[in-house]
Specification:
Length: about 290
């Protein structure tokens, strides 16, 4: 786990039931894959418990749709299947109509479609990749070289690379089509032993591959590794003896979600309801007090 307890103020542990304090309702577009959103929900509950929730009624409300029929994000980005954009817009609007205040999508590659989707929604989609980079900025001042493991789609879109470079980091990632990147894709997608196929029962070949890939990134100078695919997060939780510390974007976005829910982080408003960085069309997260986890 990468949760930094130094940011956890003692009074949070003595907080009133979270339901009494809930300011916003998050909506989760899951199903990409289904194990990713169940892992994300588990992390939400674990982090909510760390913040003082002890009973069912003390955890926050959220709404989730298991949108497992959305086309594969990597194949969609690479033009091998239909676009994910209309599907993401459809389910984002569905959750908005149900009353959620913001969206979280626990799929890294889905963020390759962020701009055309966000422009069609009236509620903000919280950006997983940028939140992960911000976590590094706030918590890892002495680290410069950041390893990134991801799908071909996320790698092709340069999602983490662009975000990390803007923040002053040196991203270290695998080359598309390289033997190590093929190893990553097989570890995720293989129909017999890949993580999507086996779920939380991570196979021995998958664990061996994860160790091999981390060893390789370490040899390239990486000081820490981002699990830039939800299935990789699942795999790393079940794999011991890794050569480098790794960060889970799902845990990072879970804490941002709870910050928003409880009012420790806010979305400033303009005439549309939210303050927007118009160049990137990304909603801006605003610090409101010292209880932030990022």
């Amino acid at each position: 786990m990468i949760y930094n307890k130094d940011h956890f103020h003692a009074k949070v542990l003595r907080a009133k039931p979270l339901r009494e304090k809930q300011n916003l309702i998050p909506g989760i577009i899951g199903g990409m894959g289904p194990l990713a959103h169940t892992t994300f929900e588990q992390i939400l509950i674990e982090q909510s418990t760390k913040r003082g929730a002890a009973r069912d009624q003390e955890h926050p409300l959220w709404l989730l749709i298991n949108a497992a029929n959305i086309p594969d994000r990597t194949e969609s980005f690479l033009g091998k299947t239909e676009s994910c954009v209309p599907w993401l817009i459809k389910y984002g609007k569905f959750l908005a109509s149900a009353g959620v205040d913001f969206l979280v999508i626990p799929c890294n590659t889905a963020h390759a479609f962020y701009e055309p989707v966000q422009s069609q929604l009236q509620i903000p989609w919280i950006h997983l990749i940028d939140c992960t980079t911000q976590f590094l900025v706030e918590n890892y001042h002495d680290i410069k070289k950041v390893g990134v493991l991801s799908t071909d789609g996320t790698l092709q879109a340069q999602l983490y690379q662009n975000s990390l470079v803007k923040a002053g980091f040196i991203p270290i990632s695998l080359q598309l089509g390289s033997e190590f990147q093929k190893l990553v894709m097989n570890t995720i997608y293989d129909l017999s032993w890949g993580i999507k196929a086996t779920g939380s029962q991570i196979s021995a070949p998958a664990q061996k591959n994860l160790r091999t890939i981390i060893d390789y990134l370490a040899s390239l100078g990486a000081e820490i590794v981002i699990a830039g695919c939800s299935e990789l997060s699942v795999g790393f939780y079940e794999t011991d003896e890794l050569a480098l510390k790794w960060l889970d974007p799902l845990e990072i976005i879970a804490n941002v979600t709870l910050d928003l829910v409880l009012g420790y982080r806010s979305l400033q408003t303009d005439n549309n309801g939210y303050k927007i960085n118009h160049q990137s069309q990304k909603y801006e997260l605003i610090q409101v007090d010292s209880l932030l986890l990022l």
